[in-house]
Amino acid sequence: MMIERVGLNDLEQLIKIEKKVFREDAFSRETIKKLILQNTLFLKIEDDNLSNKIIGFVIAIKDDEDRVNIINFVIQKKFQKQGYGSLLLKKALERINRIKGVKRIILNVKTSNVSAIDLYKKFNFRIVGKIEQYYRQKESAYLMELKI
Ligand SMILES: CC(C)(COP(=O)(O)OP(=O)(O)OC[C@H]1O[C@@H](n2cnc3c(N)ncnc32)[C@H](O)[C@@H]1OP(=O)(O)O)[C@@H](O)C(=O)NCCC(=O)NCCS
């Protein structure tokens, strides 16, 4: 098991996973490329036994002086519920903790996405707001925050 920064070599795999998981809400090729090229915290988790097939990834951007925003977090369906998401989130939070000046980490999650919400709660994220009709299909989102 390896957790590493993504590179442009990973672009095609990342696009495929995005489309499969998020469908019409998926980030475009251009957006993903830009995020890889920018100095973003963009980590992948892969299995060495599967010839470095990407199991999942997390993207976090520093969008304010004291704030990091986790804008994407995915584990492929067949690998879910085996602890990979927790492992990846833990590593991402460790790296974010090392960024100077960061006092809080935020993210948006669909109000119906109970398993993701539960996972964030385990890492001490708290629901601090609700945004109505945040997603394309008019679903609402919770704003969750972790103070560090
Ligand atoms: C949210 C997501 C990233 C979580 O990844 P994951 O790898 O399934 O997470 P984990 O396996 O670490 O934990 C999930 C659950 O599995 C349980 N679990 C972990 N290891 C387990 C194991 N070996 N056996 C059984 N259950 C296990 C955890 O306790 C946790 O339970 P909970 O739902 O009660 O909290 C994943 O479900 C996903 O990609 N979803 C689709 C995209 C998405 O919604 N992303 C979030 C957008 S904000």
Protein model, in words:
- The chain is an alpha+beta fold and 148 residues long.
- The chain has a single domain, classed as 3-Layer(aba) Sandwich (Aminopeptidase).
- Helices cover 30% and strands 35% of the residues.
- The chain is built from four helices and seven strands.
- A seven-stranded mixed β-sheet has the order 1-2-3-4-5-7-6, sandwiched between helices.
- It is globular.
- The two termini are 27 Å apart.
- The model has no long low-confidence stretch (mean pLDDT 94).
- The structure holds coenzyme A.
- Coenzyme A binds next to strand 4, helix 3, strand 5 and helix 4.
- The site of coenzyme A has 18 residues, from strand 4, helix 3, strand 5 and helix 4.
Shape: globular
| Global Rg | 15 Å
Distance between the termini: 27 Å
What order do the SSEs take from the amino end to the carboxyl end, as H and E?
Answer: EHHEEEHEHEE
Q: Within the largest sheet, what's the order of strands?
A: 1-2-3-4-5-7-6
CATH-assigned fold name: Aminopeptidase
Mean pLDDT, nearest integer?
94
- Tally of contiguous helical segments: 4
DSSP strand (E) fraction? 35-45%
| Name given to the CATH homologous superfamily | Gcn5-related N-acetyltransferase (GNAT)
- Please summarize the sheet with the most strands: 7 strands, mixed
What ligands can be seen in this structure? coenzyme A
